[in-house]
Amino acid sequence: MQDKIDQYTAEIKAFTSAKADELEAFRIKYLGTKGLIKDLFEQFKTVGTEEKRTFGKVLNEFKQFAESKYNELKDSIDSSTATEDTEFDMTLPGEGVSVGSRHPLSLIRNEIIDIFKRLGFVVAEGPEIEDDWHNFSALNFPEEHPARDMQDTFFIKKNSGTDDIALRTHTSSVQVRMMENGKPPFRAIMPGRVYRNEAISARAHCFFHQVEGLYVDENVSFSDLKQTLYSFVQELYGEGTKVRFRPSYFPFTEPSAEMDVSCTICKGAGCNMCKHSGWVEILGCGMVDPNVLENCGIDSKKYTGFAFGMGIERITNLKYVIRDLRLFSENDVRFLEQFKTEII
Ligand code: DAH
C-alpha cells in the first residue's frame, strides 16, 4: 500500500496541465468514484488493526494532497479562461460609462454666447477682483454717491475710496477694461461671476453670474440696442416673445432702460413666476454715458454705443422653472442630473 501511495504521490506531483479536459481526466483517475484513491480506501478496509493505525493518517493526507493539487490547477484554468472571455467575446455587453452633465447655468451661458456670436459679438473676460476705478469710478459712479449703495460690495481693501479693492459687483467692469485697452468699434459680450453682500435666500445669493454686452461704433443709436436685444430674445425664448422697455437709471448709461419679456411660463396670462403681471424683467441697458467713453479714452463726439447687462440665473430660472437660487450652488446630484440630456 505504501508503495502505491508513493508512486501516486510522485505522479500527482509531476502532473501539470492548463487544459480543462486533461484536468478532468486527472480527477476521474485519482479522485473519481471509481478512482485510484477510492481503491486504496477499499483496500484499507481489509488490512489489520496495526496497519490501520499507520495508514489511516497517511491515506487521508494523501487524499487531501491530491484534492488540493486538483483545486489549484482548476483555479488557474478558471481564471485564465475568464480573461480570455472578456478579451475575445465580442458579444458580452459593454461596461456602462456614466457621463456627467453640464450645469444649467453653463448651458444657458453657452446659449447666450452662441446667439450673440451669430450677431457678430466676440467674448471677453475680466478679473473677479477689481479696483474701484473699473468697478465704479470709470463707470460714472461719483465718489461717496449713494448710487454705490445700489450694490452691496464685498471689499478686500477699503481705503479712501479710489484705491479700494473689491470683488466685482457686476460685469460692467469688463466694459471699462475692454475700452481702455482697445480702439472702437467694440462689439463684445462678457460673461462672468459677480459678488454682492446679500443674505442667502431663495431669491438672492452672495454670488451670481452676469453677461455684459457692449457695442460702440460711429452712429450707434437706441434703435440698434432695441433691435439687437429683440433678436436675442426671439432666439432665446422663441419667435413671438414680446419685449418692452421701461425707463430706468444706471450711472453708466444715459438714457437707461430695463427690458421685460412676456412671461415664458404663462405666455403673458399671469402666473407665480411673473407675479401675475405677464412680464418678467431680464436685463438693464442703455446708451453708454459719454462720461464713461471719455473715462476710457474714447472720443464721445465721434463714437456712441449701447450696453446691457443680464443675470444668467434669472434667465435660467425662467427657462427651466427653477424657483430657488440656492440649487445652483448646492451640487445636489438629484438636481444636476436632470440636465443630462443636454450634454454635448
Ligand atoms: N451692471 C448692472 C447691474 O449689475 C446691469 C447693467 C445695466 C449693465 C445697464 C449694463 C447696463 O451694461 O447698460 O445691475
Would you kindly provide a brief summary of this structure?
This protein is α+β, with helices and mostly antiparallel strands and 344 residues long.
Describe the protein in words.
The chain has 344 residues and is of the alpha+beta class. The protein has two domains: 84 residues; 239 residues, 2-Layer Sandwich (BirA Bifunctional Protein, domain 2), CATH 3.30.930. The chain is built from eleven helices and ten strands. The strands form two sheets. The chain has a seven-stranded mixed sheet, sandwiched between helices. It has a three-stranded antiparallel sheet with strand order 2-4-3. The site of 3,4-dihydroxyphenylalanine (DAH) has 11 residues, from β9 and β10.
Bound molecules: 3,4-dihydroxyphenylalanine
User: Total number of helical segments?
Assistant: 11
Low-confidence stretches: none
Count of separate structural domains: 2
How many beta-strand segments? 10
Main β sheet profile: 7 strands, mixed
Q: CATH superfamily of the largest domain, please? A: Bira Bifunctional Protein, Domain 2
What radius of gyration results from the CA coordinates? 39 Å
Q: Please bin the fraction of helical residues.
A: 40-55%
With strands numbered from the N-terminus, the spatial order across the biggest sheet is 1-5-6-10-9-8-7
* Mean model confidence by pLDDT: 90
How much beta, percentage-wise? 15-25%
Oligomer: single chain
Secondary-structure element order, N to C: HHHHHEEHEEHEEHEEEHEHH
Q: Give the N-terminus to C-terminus distance in angstroms.
A: 76 Å
The CATH topology assignment of the largest domain is: BirA Bifunctional Protein, domain 2
Principal-axis shape equals rod-shaped
Briefly, what CATH class of the largest domain?
Alpha Beta
Structural class determined from secondary elements: alpha+beta
- In the CATH hierarchy, the architecture of the largest domain is 2-Layer Sandwich
